[in-house]
């Protein structure tokens, strides 16, 4: 459970780091599963999907991400439903939650690219901006060198802004560079097994991985039961919804 002070910090800044949530065994089971699933996924990846799923610098063999682990993989489904994670989620967005989307970010050593500043609620388009929550779990220790998340403190209290996408990358929505000065982006390093929670409005980004260590993480995106995604910017497949409580 989170303390009152932690909940207060989340409400004030739009993000919260909680160390030591997963055990080392849970982390290593998750990493093994990514390894097996990733190999299978790469073998079957269609050409028109490569731009989205592969790192440009990886000669066709370095995965950037995998989608919907909470739906496709037992290991990740168990993590998304685990009592301690769900208890914290419900403290932050209220009782009765589902995972409507989830992602594994691989950020491989040296070639893992950056993710520009964005707000998850622009992607998700919920009718209640306080009803979504991203639970970002570090499977490798995330540092400034290997591409940890950076947050704009208290940007959760501001509005959702329009996003733009680079040519040929309609899925890579991001805030326009003219806005970037509005919040200083501060790093949120997390040890392996720790969680970085963020509110759906919170500005966040990750930098390129310039280290020789991977920065693998799983993000579970939760939705409180009374809310709906009424204006999503991308298609979220409702058939993968995982009711949790
Ligand atoms: O892990 C990353 O690099 C990006 C994560 C992210 O944008 C998110 O979880 O909302």
Q: What is the strand and helix layout of this fold?
A:
Layout lengths: L3 H10 L1 E4 L5 H20 L6 H4 L11 E3 L1 H4 L1 H8 L1 H11 L3 E9 L9 E4 L1 H5 L7 E7 L10 E4 L10 E2 L9 E2 L9 E4 L6 E5 L4 E3 L10 E8 L17 E2 L2
Antiparallel strand pairs: 1-10, 2-3, 3-12, 3-13, 4-11, 5-10, 5-12, 6-9, 6-11, 7-8
The structure holds 2-oxoglutaric acid.
2-oxoglutaric acid binds next to strand 5, strand 11 and strand 12.
Explain what this protein looks like in three dimensions.
- The chain has 245 residues and is an alpha+beta fold.
- It has a single domain (4-243), classed as Sandwich (Jelly Rolls), CATH 2.60.120.
- 25% of the residues lie in helices and 23% in strands.
- It has 7 helices and 13 strands.
- Strands 1, 2, 3, 5, 10, 12 and 13 form a 7-stranded antiparallel sheet that branches. It has a 4-stranded antiparallel sheet with strand order 4-11-6-9, with no helix packed on it.
- The mean pLDDT is 97.
- 2-oxoglutaric acid (AKG) binds next to strand 5, strand 11 and strand 12.
- 2-oxoglutaric acid binds at residues 105, 115, 120, 134, 136, 204, 206, 217, 219.
Supply the CATH superfamily name: q2cbj1_9rhob like domain
* Mean pLDDT value: 97
Strand content: 15-25%
Label the CATH architecture: Sandwich
Structural class: alpha+beta
Which geometry do the CA atoms define?
Answer: globular
CATH topology: Jelly Rolls
Distance between the termini: 16 Å
CATH top-level class: Mainly Beta
Into which percent range does the helicity of residues fall? 25-40%
Largest sheet: 7 strands, antiparallel
Number of strands: 13
Element-level helix/strand string = HEHHEHHHEEHEEEEEEEEE
Q: Count helical runs.
A: 7
Determine Rg (CA atoms, Å). Answer: 17 Å
How many separate domains?
A: 1
Ions, cofactors and other ligands present here are: 2-oxoglutaric acid
Low-confidence stretches: none
